[in-house]
Amino acid sequence: MTQASGPMIEISGLSKTFTLHNQNAAQIPVMAGGSLSVAAGECVGLIGQSGAGKSTLMRMIYGNYLAASGQIVVAGVNVAQAEPRQIIRLRRETLGYVSQFLRVVPRVPTVDVVAEPLLVLGVAADVARARAESLLARLNIPQRLWSLSPTTFSGGEQQRVNIARGFAHGYPVLLLDEPTASLDATNREVVLTLIEEAKARGAAIVGIFHDEGARNRVCDRVVDVTGFTPKAAA
Ligand code: ADP
């Protein structure tokens, strides 16, 4: 599903309005005419003050929020108009999303939580587990925890399990929401190295990094989403 050339993410004419159904269907326009292009191997940081629309844009690229108009083409698929099964396939093979919080499924061992994105792609179980274990080791999750469910892990441990899971498969496109938030210096360094490795293998990345040092190091450029808002467009 990946393209040989051309941008991996191509967004144009993007508009989004939230309708508040419980408040007299009030209309909240949050985006008008946004555009963004991200090439393979490039990392773009989204900036703009709180409420500017960074998370909304990420959720639209992932297909969680529907665009009112415009195009969001990810590896050749227009997410803004795709069928649910196309979105599911895109997420499985092409488009990874490291959110801020791990969604813990009870009783699943940590190593399987991390290996799952590879297992659903048909990667052999021993290969998938070996990849999961290598990431858990790099992210300093103690080996004695690998066979336990991450339900009871600390916030920082859960965040690192979530990152390991997000980097298990080599997605051609990656969305990263504050991947270094609340990590200690050692693990922050591991995550920045994982991002650099992903870029080196050609991943196109869009991220929100409040950590300015991290942003300066991994982002090739920044885009201020304030420029996507209706007021800026008017
Ligand atoms: P940022 O990530 O830059 O802080 P957000 O994307 O979270 O900004 O929010 C952009 C704007 O959209 C804000 O004004 C926010 O209140 C509004 N918004 C976000 N999600 C929703 C929603 N589900 N329903 C209504 N308004 C929303």
Features:
single chain, 234 residues, alpha/beta, Rossmann fold, 5-stranded parallel β-sheet, 4-stranded antiparallel β-sheet, 9 strands, binds adenosine-5'-diphosphate
How would you sum up this structure, described in words?
Helix content is about 35%, strand content about 25%. It has about 230 residues and is α/β, with parallel strands linked by helices. The chain folds into two domains: about 1-95 and about 170-234, Rossmann fold, CATH 3.40.50.300; about 105-170. It has a five-stranded parallel β-sheet, sandwiched between helices. It has a four-stranded antiparallel β-sheet with strand order 2-1-4-5, with helices on one face. The mean pLDDT is about 95. The structure holds adenosine-5'-diphosphate (ADP). Adenosine-5'-diphosphate (ADP) binds near residues 18, 28, 48 and 53.
Blueprint (SSEs and pairs):
Layout: E1 9-20, E2 26-38, E3 43-47, H1 54-62, E4 69-74, E5 77-78, H2 84-93, E6 95-98, H3 110-119, H4 125-138, H5 155-168, E7 173-177, H6 185-200, E8 204-208, H7 212-218, E9 221-224, H8 230-233
Parallel strand pairs: 3-8, 3-9, 6-7, 7-8
Antiparallel strand pairs: 1-2, 1-4, 4-5
The protein binds adenosine-5'-diphosphate.
